[in-house]
Design brief:
4 domains, Jelly Rolls, mainly beta, six-stranded antiparallel beta sheet, globular
Length: about 550
């Protein structure tokens, strides 16, 4: 990873020790260690130095880069690479005004290695990794550029997706799209501490609301166009941050102006609604007319008419804000990913996996006919799993896990007796079905999605797990209606067999048996592969999860 800049020091105090560039290559994705390096000012010598900051409390100077001179532009390139394999080495290279001043492959002083995530930063005082940065400075950046690969001063800047070159002289209207925004809270969980720390008089810096990567429609994926947060306000009753979302004019989702709610230093997001459809929320604030009442105000601006309107929501001691939305299971797959909700009524449990800690719930209509089901993954190890036949209410958020829509549950009610629905009988070709909401389709697509529902199929056993000969984990059955399943053999090659995969340890079947199977229609992630560029799913396939051996009958 390379970070480069042309900059000028306009003023600098004698005690300034700020870092102006930080480069940390990704050392998590391949399991190999990487480095943390930064360019910072040494106030004792008034020189720029390259520091190893693998331990931010004890930075180590690797090289002296140049003098901290005011009024003169300097150009710096900083490259850092993690280990790409056990026999590989990390590498750090730095160029100052066109000349190479440090190369770890040639230098006696070597950076330490550390496991970390990717990060680049530039500024007067980069916010990481220094624990204490002193002094003041004014820096003018003429241009800043970054790239995933090594780039030297003699190289043209690459145009790959993970590269950018920002120069206001060349493109004065250009901007770098990002969605990293935080607000320091000014609210502390300790009684009596609000806005300012009474001991230091400083605004609290330990608690923050983060917006990183939370698309109001689909968390973590830039769908619908560029989006951002216009305003954040803090609810004085609970310290939760209310965020007014906005987006570019061409944003294609209908939730412009959505107000989302988030807790202190938490990832949980709640949906407070859209004050005015199609209008931006440009300001949020709270007002307490008395001790028992809190009013939330949202100022909107309509992009079409240009008019401003003020909206109000009221919370009282007897009727406080309820951040959860409550909905039937049939609507869950269409909910926003990452946004908390609750089920409207208890749902019956159809399958439980105690070892991997997940279960399935199902919903029926007024006539008792199954209409939808979904996987539930408890988000807390202390949550007790229900049993098959129990009915439970769930609070959590929607996610897609290895190609399957699922609820990550952070609340499961005390179980009450439920009524198990009869399984839906279908042909093998119908298992899986078309995409619905966030649930991807599972080929061959024949009919609507039935992922999460209790189903029944019949057919001939066409294959068994060849890897675990004495404890087979799966088999396939085929009724001649079409479709194939895949598995990875002992040599790591992908093999195909006709039929639907049934995942059950030590199932009492042999190839050639004619069997019936009852189980939950699910997604097999054995060959799950996310495309790193598009993040689309590759290779997911349908499967059936019997509850136990009694769900498999050999005729």
């Amino acid at each position: 990873m390379t970070l480069a800049a042309r900059f000028r020091m306009d003023s600098v105090s004698s005690d300034y020790n700020g870092s102006i560039l930080v480069v940390i290559p990704d050392a998590n994705s391949n399991g190999q260690p990487g480095v943390r390096v930064a360019i910072a000012c040494d106030p004792t010598t008034q020189q720029w130095k390259l520091y190893d900051v693998s331990n931010p409390n004890a930075p180590i100077a690797l090289a002296t880069i140049g003098n901290v001179s005011q009024g003169t532009f300097n150009t710096i390139y900083l490259y850092a690479k993690d280990k790409e394999g056990p026999s590989d080495s990390v590498r750090v290279v730095c160029w100052w005004n066109g000349a190479k001043v440090y190369d770890s492959s040639e230098a006696a002083s070597q950076p330490n290695t550390v496991t970390t995530g990717p990060y680049v930063n530039f500024g007067v005082k980069c916010d990481w990794p220094w624990t204490t940065q002193t002094g003041t400075a004014v820096v003018t950046f003429d241009w800043v550029a970054y790239a995933e690969q090594m780039v030297s001063p003699s190289d043209p800047w690459p145009s790959t997706p993970l590269a950018g070159f920002m120069d206001g002289n060349i493109s004065p209207d250009a901007y770098q799209a990002t969605n990293i925004m935080s607000r320091f809270v000014g609210f502390n969980d300790e009684a009596g501490t609000r806005l300012f720390d009474p001991a230091t008089g400083q605004i609290s810096m330990t608690e923050a609301f983060h917006v990183n990567g939370n698309d109001p429609q689909s968390s973590g994926i830039t769908n619908g166009g560029y989006y951002w947060v216009n305003t954040i306000a803090i609810n004085p009753d609970d310290g939760f941050g209310w965020m007014g979302w906005s987006a570019e004019a061409s944003y294609s989702y209908p939730d412009r102006g959505n107000v989302m709610v988030r807790g202190i230093n938490q990832w949980e997001i709640y949906d407070a609604g859209v004050p005015e459809p199609g209008a931006d929320v440009v300001a949020l604030t709270f007002y307490k007319p008395n001790a028992d009442t809190t009013e939330a105000y949202a100022l909107t601006c309509n992009r079409t008419t240009g008019s401003y309107r003020l909206y109000k929501a009221t919370s009282t001691t007897s009727n406080p804000f309820d951040y959860n939305q409550y909905m039937p299971l049939s609507l869950v797959r269409f909910h926003r990913r990452g946004v908390m909700f609750g089920t409207d009524t208890p749902k019956v449990v159809t399958y439980v996996n105690d070892f991997d800690r997940f279960f399935y719930v199902e919903e029926v209509n007024e006539n008792g006919i199954p209409i939808t089901g979904i996987k539930v993954i408890p988000g807390n190890e202390s949550l007790m799993l229900p049993a098959v036949g129990d009915a439970v209410s769930i609070t959590g958020y929607l996610d897609v896990v290895d190609g399957e829509a699922a609820i990550r549950a952070f609340g499961i009610s005390v179980p009450v007796p439920g009524t198990l629905p009869a399984p839906l009988t279908m042909q093998c070709k119908a298992v899986g079905g078309a995409p619905v909401g966030v649930q991807p389709g599972l080929p061959p697509i024949n009919g609507p999605s039935n992922v999460g529902l209790l189903i029944s199929i019949v057919g001939t056993v066409t294959a068994k797990d060849p890897i675990n000969e004495f404890s087979p984990e799966w088999f396939t059955i085929d009724d001649g209606t079409g479709g194939i399943s895949y598995y990875v053999d002992g040599s790591g090659n992908l093999q195909a067999v006709p039929g639907v995969k049934v995942k059950l340890l030590n199932a009492p079947v042999n190839v050639g048996d004619f069997v019936s199977v009852v189980g939950v229609s699910s997604v097999d992630a054995l060959i799950y592969r996310p495309d790193p560029q598009t993040r689309q799913l590759k290779g997911i396939q349908r499967c059936v999860l019997p509850r136990d051996a009694s769900d498999v009958i050999v005729y």
